[in-house]
Write a structure and sequence with these properties.
The complex is a heterodimer of chains A (274) and B (415). Chain A is mainly α and 274 residues long. Chain A has twelve helices and one strand; from the N terminus they run βαααααααααααα. In chain A, helix 4 packs antiparallel against helix 6 and helix 7 runs antiparallel to helix 10. Chain A is globular, with a radius of gyration of 20 Å. Chain B is α+β, with helices and mostly antiparallel strands and 415 residues long. Chain B has two domains: 218 residues, 3-Layer(aba) Sandwich (Rossmann fold); 138 residues, abc- transporter (atp binding component) like domain (Coagulation Factor XIII, Chain A, domain 1). The longest helix of chain B is centred in the middle third of the chain and has 16 residues. The termini of chain B are far apart. In chain B, 41% of the residues are buried. About 4% of the residues of chain B have low confidence. Classes of the chains: A mainly alpha (274), B alpha+beta (415). At the A-B interface, strand 1, helix 2, helix 5 and helix 12 of A face helix 1, helix 2, strand 4 and helix 3 of B.
């Protein structure tokens, strides 16, 4: 006898159903595949775009900030190497966050026509930037080696950091994508958040230009710890971030758990509201 | 309370929507106001259903009766507000053809994407892949992006995926109302197989003939409640007998219960869509002129009558309006009694569903009688005159194709 599913009006907070999510993992795979193939299909330069973005931004920042404005570099590496590493990581994170936030509203047709665990949508949305991260990371590595900066052995830990970054982005994305269904303000807020983040994260300037007194507040931004850890993995003379790494770890855990619970509560009304 | 013997058991189901006020709002409109504005509307209330495994059950009722909401509750798309649903077995939902299809992806990629969206595992799609492709008959175009498909090919492939969804319970809404006659025959054949294959099917359609053909038992849903239940022929007969706006083929009977704006001086009783031979039809071909025949019962003499015929596309957008006074033609003068008024319309409609609003006003602006969505019909992607003139694209943008003349002027070739 097949199992019987009971549907009753939902009340209050409910735990996310992770088993159902797992059963639909193939759907996540095909949604990612769809997004990746569509994005680069019929674009003139295809995947080159993923490389060009951080590269061009790093050039712009190197010329205007590094060269003209004399912003210091960090970790004993030339400014272009410093800025490019930061830019690759930041674009990865900000795209994952942006795609996740926009994902539910972008899938409104599906949501109204068929049921599947809705959380698949933001989960599938954060993954394509991870695929873009690979060529961008590779090109940054080539540039770094060309400047004679040989990465230390902890570069092997970059995949773990990439997963942590994705977890932070997904945690934020779960909140924002659920809120976006009801409040379309979110769509306007996210690009602004990313713009602000570019300045309140040590991407194009080193962490130590921030005064000691401001550092505790500054470091609450989880991406500060991620960036510092990333540079420790890439540059031989960068310092171990120490306690700074605890903040993205803790944020990821808190954002993922609360985000998943909020999403589960909000998703009931998606089809009626979206 | 044992549900062992049932595939679907619904008890006291209710679904409430809030009307009025935008559903999505800006945060600024929300701040400082807890209670949402608008009034409640029960799309479903107190609905009980009992469906045994292997039964093929129809849901009939007019537009807005709650059939689609019921299907959405059963399929978990939207949660109920009250009551209880028990479903035994895997559930598949088919609310439209081509759910999740993406125009940029190839046929092969879309089969996998759509299959997993509908709830299949990747391995299940792979196992049925050849069958799906064979049913659709598009083997040669598997690697072509579906945006280059004709709409016929698109629908065939999309339906093929859905038809091979192997679930215990299948919830189907209106999806057979697409494609040309040949394809519809094929779909019906497949639905017959599904129905005989021992699966439980709940089928919603406005085409009563389709319900009668496929379903042994039916529920008549009216105003969000179950109005009648029993063998399909009896339920359909009751439904047709009921004084509502019911459409059979191209003839809509507008009963007294139909929502309308009226003074009572004039009553629209019947609207029919006629083809070239004055036969009622609910499907017209690309470029086929059609006639709308309206029967009005006039109780008080009308001397300055203006008849409005409004054509709307499926999403409710009014795409055309014609009136008997267009082009400075005379006002209508009608004595008490029954009058049939005909309008022949020569417009090329792009493929899709259309509805007709029919009403009579006085020139001074007073509406004597007006019925929205009095009649529904389909514009087909099939040439009217047997030519090759078809709408070749998957995506239909717009609703009308006005006549156009084309020319090319080439500037002098550069020296």
């Amino acid at each position: 006898m097949a199992e019987t599913r009971v549907i009753v009006p939902p009340r209050g907070w409910q735990a996310p159903n992770l088993r159902e999510l797992w059963e639909y993992r193939d759907l996540a795979f095909f949604l990612v595949k769809r997004d990746v193939s569509i994005r680069y299909r019929q674009t003139l330069i295809g995947t080159v775009w993923a490389i060009l973005q951080p590269l061009l931004l790093a050039v712009v920042f190197s010329v205007f900030l590094g060269h003209y404005a004399q912003v210091p570099s960090g970790a004993g590496v030339p400014y272009p190497v410093f800025a490019l590493a930061g830019m690759v990581m930041w674009l990865y994170f900000s795209q994952a966050m942006q795609f996740a936030s926009d994902s539910t509203v972008a899938s409104r047709e599906l949501i109204g026509k068929v049921w599947f665990p809705r959380m698949i949508i933001p989960i599938a949305a954060v993954l394509p930037p991870a695929i873009d991260f690979l060529p961008a990371f590779a090109i940054a590595m080539i540039v770094q080696l060309a400047y004679g900066v040989v990465p230390p052995v902890q570069i092997l830990l970059v995949p773990l950091l990439a997963v942590l970054t994705l977890a932070v982005a997904l945690g934020i994305g779960l909140w924002l994508s659920a809120l976006n269904v009801r409040y379309r303000d979110i769509r306007l807020a996210v690009p602004f958040l990313i713009l602000v983040g570019l300045f309140v994260t040590p991407i194009v300037y080193p962490f130590d230009v921030v005064p000691d007194a401001a550092q505790p507040i500054y470091a609450l931004n989880p991406m500060v710890g991620v960036l510092e850890t990333y540079r420790w993995m890439l540059f031989p003379d960068a310092d171990w971030p120490g306690a700074l790494l605890a903040i993205p770890l803790a944020s990821a855990a808190v954002l993922l758990v609360t985000g998943a619970w909020y999403f589960t509560r909000a998703e009931r009304d998606f089809a009626d509201v979206i | 309370m044992s549900s062992d013997a049932l595939a679907i058991r619904v008890a006291g189901l209710g679904k409430r929507y809030r009307l009025g006020g935008a559903q999505t709002d800006l945060l600024s409109e929300r701040i400082g106001r807890r209670a949402p504005k608008g009034r409640d509307f029960w799309a479903l209330r107190g609905v009980d259903l009992s469906i045994a495994p292997g039964e093929v059950v129809g849901l009939v009722g007019r537009n807005g009766a709650g059939k689609s909401t019921l299907l959405k509750c059963l399929s978990r798309i939207t949660p109920p507000t009250e009551g209880r649903i028990e479903l035994t077995g895997r559930v598949g939902t088919l609310l439209e053809v081509g759910t999740g299809f993406h125009p940029e992806l190839s046929g092969r990629e879309n089969v996998y994407l759509s299959g997993t969206i509908l709830g299949m595992r990747r391995a299940e799609v792979a196992a049925r892949f050849d069958e799906i492709v064979a049913f659709s008959g598009i083997e040669q175009f598997l690697e072509t992006p579906v945006k280059r498909y004709s709409s016929g090919m698109y629908v065939r492939l999309a339906f093929a995926v859905a038809a091979h969804l192997d679930t215990d319970i299948l919830l189907v809404d209106e999806v057979l109302a697409v494609g040309d006659a040949e394809f519809q025959r094929k779909c019906f054949g497949k639905m017959d197989d599904v129905a005989r294959g021992g699966r439980t099917v709940v089928f919603v359609s406005h085409q009563l003939s389709a319900v009668q053909r496929l379903c042994t038992r039916s529920y008549w849903i009216d105003g969000g409640r179950v109005r009648a239940e029993g063998p399909t022929n009896e339920v359909v007969a009751q439904y047709l007998h009921h004084a509502g706006a019911t459409q059979e083929g191209g003839v809509a009977t507008i009963g007294p219960d139909v929502p309308r704006s009226t003074t009572g001086a004039v009553t629209l009783e019947r609207v029919a869509l006629l083809d070239d031979d004055d036969r009622p039809t609910d499907r017209i071909r690309l470029g086929q002129p059609f006639t709308v025949a309206m029967t009005f019962r006039v109780s008080e003499t009308v001397e300055d009558g203006v008849i409005e015929l409004g054509l709307s596309s499926a999403d409710g957008t009014r795409v055309a309006t014609v009136q008997n006074v267009d082009g400075d033609r005379p006002l209508l003068s009608l004595t008490p009694g029954r009058h049939e008024i005909r309008a022949r319309i020569d417009a090329t409609l792009l493929p899709g569903e259309f509805t007709l609003d029919v009403g009579m006003h006085r020139l001074i602006g007073l509406t004597l009688d007006f019925v929205e969505r009095a009649l529904t019909f389909t514009a087909l992607n099939v040439a009217y005159d047997g030519s090759e003139d078809r709408w070749p694209w998957v995506v239909v943008r717009g609703a009308l194709r006005p006549p156009s003349e084309w020319s090319v002027r080439t500037a002098d070739a550069p020296a």
